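During the no-cost extension, the postdoctoral fellow (Dr. R.K.) reprocessed legacy sequence entries with the updated structure-token encoder. One reprocessed record is reproduced below for audit purposes.
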Amino acid sequence: MDHIEFVYTLGMTDEEIEKRLQTETAGVLSLADEGRAYGVPVSHHYDGESLFFRLGDDDHSKKLEFVETTKEACFVLFGVDGDDSWSILVTGTLSELSGDERKEFDAATINDWFGSFRVFDEAIDEIELTLFEMEISSVTGRKTGK
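Re-encoded structure tokens follow.
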């Protein structure tokens, strides 16, 4: 342990956390099913109160299976630039937006909030986009200290 380098971290201010949540475009959404975990990179949108996620469903979506069984999800944003780094952990419950809630999100809004939808090997015409809202229960932000 004599040659291990350590860097102290500090808590981020509420303003720093808000700025990162509003300006960063992607993070990792962690879901759970009893003893199994599933983390998936996702785009997000933060409106000052809730986080929103756009997920694709091609009838074989592992992430949507995990969404159904997750009691509390965790979303992680982070960045590293040399010795400088920061991370934000957000926990909360997820709920799918449907019906009237979904009507306010037209294609232009969804494209603006989330950018282009990344497709792996699915047929585009078979993908149904779903929107989820995370009701935030806790937020923790850390950054390297000086």
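The chain has one domain: 9-141. The chain has a mean pLDDT of 87. The remaining legacy entries will be reprocessed before the final report is submitted.
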